[in-house]
Amino acid sequence: MTALIASAPRPSFRLLQRSLRLVLGVLSLSVMAGCNDVSEAPAPDPGPGALTIVTASLPDATVRQPYSITIGGSGGITPYSWGVTPPLPANLSFNGASGAISGMPAAQGTSSHTFTLQDSSVPPQTTQKTLSLKINQALVPPAITTLSLPAGTVNAPYPQTTLNATGGVPPLVWQPVGMPFGLTFDAASHSISGVPTSSGTANVTFTVNDSAVPFNQTASGTLSITVNVALKIDTTSLPEGSVNQGYGPVQLNASGGGQPYSWTIVGGAPPAPGLTLSSGGVITGQPTTKGAFTNTYRVQDNNGAAVTQSLTITVAELIIDTTGLPTGRVGVAYGPVALTASGGTPPYVWSSSVVPVLPSGLLFDPNSGTVSGAPLVPQINGSHTFSVRDAANRTATKALGLTILDSLTSR
């Protein structure tokens, strides 16, 4: 048997597609046989892409402030490895595996650094970028400059006080701990106000934080606030005065609050006509008019707290009422004749001194205030001055006329 083999047409080939990568890849060809049978190779691998440093710039750093940033890369095949030239400024380190910069720079300045990125391709891809790093001068931390706080008084408005600080990055945020009852702290104006309700000394810790980035700077200090007991006037009455007699000095007294005190009379009137009140609370002078003089006395402490008290000064005019002594006669019993006084504050005490002395034979008894005896000598239109003192130490004097006639037998 003879087999006959028909010869098929020689296939012809035509290039349909060609894909060629310069980086490690696959050469793919699509061919078509003359019999029009088409075969297509697998789609090409897109590959790792070009290696790129994506960080465009470095944020500013600040001396003695923590600094941290990671340089970013893309493309290529990970893991990456990093390098930098020249070295970073003192106290800043660079992680070659992660591309992280960290640390706390020590000095101000600006420097340029070239960062190199290499991937894990075979052969490896490499790229570089130069970035500038600015290190600003160190921030001045905040410091509380208020060294003391004024005292307050129970139930009296506290003098509004503002705390102050310097340095730091504004705005500054304040926070107190341990404020006395009744007082409040306004964080916006960093001021203290209110009406304290209990006495004592409170140690208040004030903390101020600035707005530095990335970490706030903080300062704190402890200041004492003393709250005095409530202010009050202790003087409840005033001694009486006498017309044309020296008065005082009389000291008004107060307690509580904060000294020194300042005294006034509401309305500005004097304590009494002829008297004055000093800011220290002392009443002095010489009353010129009798009567009862009531005024509202006001005392204010050094914190602005004030209270009032109504007090009266009575000005009495001590007088000797006796207008004259009856006429006497030599050798005839005289009296007793009682002298009388009024005004002032009883009891009265008469002075034993009579100026000039009474005629011989007459005596003045200061205990009873009487003149008695038997005159031995005549006296025509004589005058004798008597003196009396009251319980408030006021004195009054008066000259009284006295005539002593001669005896009847002498005619």
From TrEMBL:
GO cellular component: membrane
Secretion signal span: 1-33
SUPFAM superfamilies per record: Cadherin-like (SSF49313)
Pfam entry (one): He_PIG
Keywords noted in UniProt: Signal
Alphabetized InterPro entries for the sequence: Cadherin-like_sf, Ig-like_fold
Signal in keyword set: yes
GO MF annotation terms: calcium ion binding
Protein name (Swiss-Prot/TrEMBL): Dystroglycan-type cadherin-like domain-containing protein
Species assigned in the record: Nitrospira japonica
Lineage: Bacteria, Pseudomonadati, Nitrospirota, Nitrospiria, Nitrospirales
